[in-house]
Amino acid sequence: MEQQPILTVNKLNIDVSTPHGVTQVVRDVSFKIEAGKVFGFVGESGSGKTMTCMSLLNLLPGEAKVVKGSIKFRNKDILNCSAKDMRKARGSEIAMIMQNPMTAFNPVRTIGRHFIETLKTHLPITKQQARTMAIAYLEKADLPNPENLLKQYPFQLSGGMLQRVMIAITMSLNPSILIADEPTTALDATNQLQILQQLNWLRKEYDTGILLVSHDLGVIAQLADEVAVMYGGYIVEKAPVFKLFNRPMHPYTRVLLESRLGLTRRKIKSVQRVSVSSPNLINKENTCPFFERCEDADHTCVNDNLELKECEKDHLVRCVKSG
Amino acid sequence: MGWFIVKRLTSLIPILFGISLITFILLHLTPGDPAVAYLRASHIPPADETVAALRVELGLDKPLYVQYVEWLGKVVQLDLGMSYVSKKSVWDEIMLHFFPTVQLTLASCILIVVVSLPIGIMSAIYKGKLIDQFSRIIAFVSVSMPAFWFGFLLIYFLSVKLDLFPVLGRGTFAHLVLPSLTLSFAYIGTYMRLLRASVLENLNEPFVMYARARGLRERLIVSRHLLKKSLLPLVTGLGMSLGNMLSGAVIVETVFAWPGMGQLFVTSILTRDYPMIQGCLLFMGVIFVVCNLLVDLAYSFLDPRIRWEGEK
Ligand SMILES: Nc1ncnc2c1ncn2[C@@H]1O[C@H](COP(=O)(O)OP(=O)(O)OP(=O)(O)O)[C@@H](O)[C@H]1O
Ligand code: SF4
Ligand SMILES: [Mg+2]
């Protein structure tokens, strides 16, 4: 039985204007997030993951702009709804966990102030009620001594604790979508695991749909139901997590997977090629974005309709050699 | 917090000691004989025997360190000696001139904050818009226009032409308007742009992004998140300016015949009134130290990280 998706992104294109011209940072990105499901985003630094995340909240920085495509949350058109509606949806319906917990909080304000101001923005409650609520949710997020925690400043807490505070704030408003932009990148291994367990608990308990961003395939493998691999602003491969790990089809996905496993001599060479040069985001029209770094590249890769094609059920790849 | 203040206060003792030493030595290193200066100020011809007699009377014949200890002993009791010129107590004279200076400083500080705070914040939020352009021009004019010229312009238009304010002197509230406008004008431009830069810097911080992602109203983000954080660099600057203004604004005081510290100091230098110069220098040194302490306290009030460090 097909579930109705909560969030639908369709053919999203984002441009960034820089002093050197316009850069295409997100291209033709489409995906869906369903309730209680985790959708994973992998890709190297600069592949456009954060840009995609911010556009879901309609919070792109001034230089960036959605030039094409649509984002639909339930029946709401995110890109065209009023500023007030959008503001109200942020935090309460679509929540976000920031990439770096150490800089996400205002250093001169206590945890309590952050928590309470968020609750009071979205709920018609008094400060005292908000405080009680905050304490309850900090406890749920496994944070010890929540009353004292409310009085503390961000710099007095560890990154892992701050990350959990963000999760607690998210939980308290029970959003239907949580965007977690590299929630574990800034943390050590123990904290990473705990955060992932908490996210997993969140989707089971509250049926929250999660967009999990990471450049670590291991993190994605633990939690995601479906994965999209991003390269140079494009989704180059999209599949349910088992299919992607068992049968990676795009050359870039294969390199990513191989670089995690044991490598043969030939493979090392290919990995080095990938990590040395950087993706050229100002794509020449009609050429595969991975062209310059691809082992299998040849003249057929200059192709007029290089699209995401379904090679097998639910397994989509953007490469002329597949399918 | 209490500990923090006590710690800062005790660290002031050696600094104050140093200031007194430097004040004393500086003056005794400068060429010229205080005894001769005294006689000149009293319109007595400096004949050799009179000078010698006076040196003994003033204690100038003793070794330098003895003079310093004696002087310091009196300073601690707020006895800064007697002016060579007016023959009045230096401390009393300083107090007499300090009050007008405080008045002028306070009025100017209020003006600086009231004007540069809103314009600075607005020109950051509406970067490149009309208000930003406007503040850029004000800032440019304010830092490039000499204070005496601006003062004269104000006098010419507001006092002489429109007869809104008195031209010179001190007395009513109306007397305070033009001098404080002139004094604050030079600072307003600087602080406006400083605040703008500070807000702009914070505007791109992840904590502002996160505040937006939590759905907070923009007004709340500015008033609760940006303001306090952006004020930090301003506090340092304002503390320094406070010290500057409290030690007297010579030009503004001269233009408006405002009887403040600046006038007292300049006159004492011109008449070589040694005790008065010494007293003024020491007093200004202490003012600066106190202003620094105030900055530290304000900082620790605004930034919990410093408060926390201080209590560890
Ligand atoms: N403010 C900006 N001005 C200009 N270019 C930008 C800006 N922010 C991002 N970009 C460009 O947009 C592209 C995508 O950036 P994005 O932050 O989405 O990458 P990411 O996949 O999240 O990378 P990371 O793993 O480092 O977080 C990058 O090539 C980056 O150079
Ligand atoms: S289209 Fe060509 S260049 Fe692009 S990934 Fe496939 S084989 Fe490599
Ligand atoms: Mg990112």
What do these coordinates show?
The complex is a heterodimer of chains A (323) and B (312). Chain A is an alpha/beta fold and 323 residues long. Helices cover 37% and strands 24% of the residues of chain A. Chain A has a single domain, classed as Rossmann fold (3-Layer(aba) Sandwich). Chain A has an 8-stranded mixed sheet, sandwiched between helices. In chain A, strand 11 and strand 12 form a beta hairpin. The two termini of chain A are 26 Å apart. Chain B is mostly helical and 312 residues long. Chain B has 15 helices and no strands. Classes of the chains: A alpha/beta (323), B mainly alpha (312). The site of magnesium ion has 4 residues of chain A, from helix 1.
Which structural class do you get from the secondary structure elements of chain B? mainly alpha
As residue ranges, the low-confidence spans of chain A are 263-283
How many individual β-strands of chain B? 0
- The average pLDDT value of chain A, as a whole number, equals 87
Which residues of chain B sit in consecutive blocks of at least 5 with pLDDT less than 50?
Answer: none
Tell me which protein chains meet in the greatest interface and how many residues each side has: A-B, 33 and 23 residues
CATH architecture heading of the largest domain in chain B: Orthogonal Bundle
What CATH architecture label of chain A applies? 3-Layer(aba) Sandwich
- How many helices of chain A? 12
* CATH superfamily membership of chain A: P-loop containing nucleotide triphosphate hydrolases
Helix content of chain A: 25-40%
Give the averaged pLDDT of chain B, no decimals: 85
